[in-house]
């Protein structure tokens, strides 16, 4: 079986699911907060935590940065590991504020921004790249569990590939286009939830005909 290219995977997923309109948020800062809240958490629970922040009028960098950490933790309890995430969010909010907010951050080059984000307590590569791509419109391809699972099954790489190696794989093969990166990542997540699950539903999968492990 001839290996399907990354571009072909994108085209097949897009023709199956259509535009995903992801990431749902009213402001870039909301995207950044959501990227932290969804760590090891379903989006439904992260969204509940986001809505709680909105209800308390706390979805602003100043409010989060200056809030009582225990109070903040209780508000985002639905996201799990809420004590840790409260600390993460406060560190992120302080960074956002001290950097001049969205208007100043988007002026910075991608590599510098990524290094700065990774230097924030609680921000790992996936969270940093989600922030870069969806909040700051930088072409940084996001690698998550769905992406690794799908492309290991498609034999594009194996389980030994680390995060940076997987990211480089895509960025070397795709145009560095923000809209494409956003759409492709969202499509992979949608596909992973529907078919390419931990126990895959291969008989119904739209990629089954070109998947060596189907």
Number of domains: 2
Number of continuous helical runs: 12
- Please state the average pLDDT score: 96
**How does the major sheet shape up?**
none
Under CATH at level 1, the class of the largest domain stands as Mainly Alpha
Give the C-alpha Rg.
Answer: 18 Å
- For the record, what is the CATH homologous superfamily label of the largest domain? Hypothetical protein, domain 2
Distance N terminus to C terminus?
Answer: 12 Å
Number of strands: 0
* SSE sequence, one letter per element: HHHHHHHHHHHH
**Approximately how much beta-strand content do the residues carry?**
under 5%
Structure description:
- This protein has 214 residues and is mainly α.
- It has two domains: 6-21 and 142-210, Helix-hairpin-Helix base-excision DNA repair enzymes (C-terminal) (Endonuclease Iii, domain 2, Orthogonal Bundle), CATH 1.10.1670; 28-135, Orthogonal Bundle (Endonuclease III, domain 1), CATH 1.10.340.
- It has helices spanning 6-17, 28-37, 43-55, 61-66, 69-75, 82-98, 101-105, 110-118, 125-135, 145-153, 163-171, 178-194.
- Helix 1 (6-17) crosses helix 12 (178-194) and helix 2 (28-37) packs antiparallel against helix 9 (125-135).
